[in-house]
Amino acid sequence: MTTETSAVTPMMAQYLEIKAEYPGALLFYRMGDFYELFFDDAVAAAEALDIALTKRGKHLGEDIAMCGVPVHSAENYLLTLIRKGFRVAVCEQLESPEEAKKRGSKSVVKRGVVRLVTPGTLTEESLLEARRHNYLASFARVRGDGALAWVDISTGSFHVMPLTEVRLGPELARLAPSEVVLADGDQADLGDIVTESGAAVTELGRAAFDSAGGEKRLCDLFDVGTLEAYGQFTRPEVAAMGAIVEYLEITQRGKLPLLRPPQREAQARVMQIDAATRRNLEITQALGGGRAGSLLSAVDRTVTAGGGRLLERRLSSPSRVLEIVQDRLDAVAFAVEQSRFSEDLRAALRKVPDLDRALSRLALDRGGPRDLAAIRNGLEQAGAIADMAEGHDLPRLMAEAVTALSGHESVLDLLEQALVAEPPMLVRDGGFIAPGFDEELDEARQLRDEGRGVIAGMQAEYSQLTGIQSLKIKHNNVLGYFVEVTSVHADKMLSAPLNETFKHRQTTANQVRFTTVPLSEMETRILNAGGRALEIEKRLYDSLKAAILENSDAVSQAASALAELDLATALADLARGEDWTRPKVDASRALEIEAGRHPVVEQALRKAGEPFIANDCDLGTAHDIWLLTGPNMAGKSTFLRQNALIALLAQAGSFVPARAAHIGMVSQLFSRVGASDDLARGRSTFMVEMVETAAILNQADDHALVILDEIGRGTATYDGLSIAWATLEHLHEINRCRALFATHYHELTNLSDKLDRVDNATVSVKEHDGDVIFLHEVRRGAADRSYGVQVAKLAGLPETVVARARVVLDALEKGEREGGTAQKALIDDLPLFSAVPAPPPQVIRESGVEKRLAEILPDELTPREALDLIYELKGIAEG
């Protein structure tokens, strides 16, 4: 699209000028009640939004493509465009058409971009998931060192951590940001890492990543002389934070969000979980996409949006600080024991709105009366909860939270007096300030709503003053409001002292009309009362918003406290309802779980009416690596995952699905369970498996927990066996970590005699009439076979294939017992499958016994009839 503006209308020239400043974004150009899009923007938006594409005039001899969306429903369209990868520049009218006309009849209304909408800068309630953070992140590199900063402008949280490039992928997987800002040129080597996390990539000029400029921007933002009050930040950390602030200034057009002071995080304080492990364990998102089926979905019983976001953070970043874990477990234990108090607390928390996001919208001037009411209602519930907690011997975490709920009386009193119970969504709708709060507003509303009554009152007043009972106050479009008397009383009205109050306006055949200064003023006030009332409300809205923002730190602390209480009581409700127990967490290397269960699988089985078979796991100091064998479908993968999830839940501060659990602090959690092709990056299933295994072997320390399933299965048998063998030895000798290692290579079970910390375990099965019955019980020992043919039969393979597989398997096992037979000789000895004719289909005839049984209704038989029937059926069978 060209920016040539010759021979175009002034309005289109304005559009092209503004569009030139935002070439990478769709321009929502405000025209009255619509946002219009033109040229290529219109074509792209019409296709993405499935709306009509029209045309408006010509440019350079060609039709101008156009489409539009209503302003009142623009948020829904914005969400669609953002999800489809677009960025949108919102261009508003900065003056009214009347103001524009004052500059000349053909003057164009001033317009300007007020906001650049991107995935990481959303704040509107309708554009965000209430129970998930929407992070904007930035990665900076300074002389080989790196740092990652991230912010959620919808809640104000602001964090930063030193980070190597190697750890960038795992940290992005943990945070799941919507957008990541990189310096110009960095997309070439970091872009794949970012996009793999699901985030959009935005490049910013390298000047934005200058640490000196970044420090100044941060100091200006927080109105401090130095950042030392918030911690000792490295140059890369300051650069990453400064780049985020710069990007927010660009996208928000100078209206910076209300950000909390930056918090420095350290990798050593949280359990390290890489991207592959997060996917495999389905911590916050199921493998099929979405929340359903994930651990988060299974354990989330929070009743507030803030509590839901806090739960996701805890599950994504389990703590490695023992004191923090114990405090969280103490809070849950208290809520479990004090069930009545806990339920009352949850009932009160259900009434708590999303304080963080309401506060953020107010700070960005995207709020409304309902956000004011949300702050009021939230603080009101905070006070009620603080009162409820009085007299209880609360654990430290809950006691600190309750303390933050008090001390908001001044703001709360102001909001309670000022606001109606159920305010409208928009300021322009008016009617959100309560009667009696502002005398001037009440007067304006009275004039607006009760103008006739006010005039009637003035008429009575003037009638009494003049002594003329027939005096009337009337209105027409020429004179407006006027006092009217009959000609009989004209002389009296025109004489002193009444002529000083009543000024003559008009004389007709039978009436004389007057006006007064109060009446003229009242007329103006009545006619302007509606607009004046709205202006007063807007002014009061601004003052109430300012009062809230002055107390934003206290409101934010209250919001965090409410989320903390919500999470503690939610996890307690989960523990009571699911029969979970408090784990013992310490600094040891123990992993002792008695009757452990998989929280997600157990819930799924319960819905199907089936029980979950609990199992023990003991990775103590003597044997901290279990080699697990057994057939497919027997539950090996479930067993592996459930123990990893129990360790994760314990360090997240939750009770766990087990009869008892002793968790020695896990520093890193690695999972390689299942695999799939990565065709986009040219990786086969086996290559993906090897890459993930390599990452584990290169990183796992002695406090890590590793779960591996079927290492080496994607290649030839002896290659795979060799790789699995060497991997197990490396975990034992080099990594020296705790591990659950599932395999079909039964040869590996002999390693338990060689490697002193390896113990064998197997999943029990029973074989009956050639079929396998899964018991889902894990016991010590090794499996002697994999029952693959039986599982294939259960899967529904044709009987001819199953029968043929049994023949081949028997021959192979015989050859193995006899010292091994050459593959070619084996193939030569066995007749080809294709030469074996398929057996004719069996014709199943109904027997006499079956026919007789079909005629019987057991509930209608007497004991004697039932006995006679047995003899009858016996006779039919023998005959």
Automatic annotation (TrEMBL):
InterPro entries per record: DNA_mismatch_repair_MutS, DNA_mismatch_repair_MutS-lik_N, DNA_mismatch_repair_MutS/MSH, DNA_mismatch_repair_MutS_C, DNA_mismatch_repair_MutS_clamp, DNA_mismatch_repair_MutS_core, DNA_mismatch_repair_MutS_N, DNA_mismatch_repair_MutS_sf
UniProt KW Cell cycle keyword: no
GO molecular function annotation: ATP binding; ATP-dependent DNA damage sensor activity; damaged DNA binding; mismatched DNA binding
Residues the entry annotates as binding ATP: G630, P631, N632, M633, A634, G635, K636, S637
Gene Ontology CC: one annotated term: cytosol
A GO biological process held by the record: mismatch repair
Family named by the database record: Belongs to the DNA mismatch repair MutS family.
Protein name: DNA mismatch repair protein MutS
Organism: Roseovarius litoreus
Recorded name of the encoding gene: mutS
